[in-house]
Structure formats: structure tokens, C-alpha cells
Amino acid sequence: MSARDEVRVPGRPELSHAADAVRAGGYVFVAGILPVDGSGGLVGHDDTVAQAGFVFGELERILAAADCSPGDVVKVTVFLTDVDDRPRVNPVRQEVFGSARPASTLVEVSGLAVPGAKIEVDAIAAVPT
Question: Which 8-state DSSP code applies to residue 46?
């Protein structure tokens, strides 16, 4: 393994010049995950909870490809286009992280890179030793 390894997960869309994650220095840095399927289509339409379920599911897939799990996440950032959706997203998030409680930041944004997207999530995980 080199000092820096890019992680690509089959079936993930390439929306920009970015890896799904980069593994370096004992950490995995997961790029922002939008509710977009492999063909670039919006998932969940206007349903924030459906979009969150998809995004956190993709987070699990990306972490697994980097030999990590949600329990290894040390920092997560959630971007919402409506901060009032937080109580609806939290149960989805809690289901993924279980008893693990990563440091967290929630940011309300005026828009995301994909029209109709209501949530984007990025994360940092510590690689298990």
C-alpha cells in the first residue's frame, strides 16, 4: 500500500474529478456523497429521508471498500438544504452508526451540486489496526 491510495467503488457515479475516498496517514477521507445512482440520476426524488438512507448506505459501501466500517468514523459532516430536516435524518444516521458517536458538523446550504439533492455527507474514518 502506498502513502496515498484512492478508493473507487463499482457502480458509483463520477460527478467530478474525485475519488470516492482516499486512504492516507491511517485515515480514510470519504468525499461528499450525494443521493445519485450509478447513472447519475437523483435517488429519493423529493424525500429527504429516502435520500439520507441512500447516502448513508453509500457511505457504508465506500467504508467497506476502504476496509473500514461506520464504527471507525471519527468525523462526519452533513449538509442539508433545510436544517429543519435534521430530526428526520437523525434516525437514519443513528441506524448506520449504532452506538458509535463520531464528531459531527451539520451545515445548512442553499444548494448542492445535483439539482434536487437535499443532503450530502462526507466523513473521516480511522483505519483499524
Answer: T
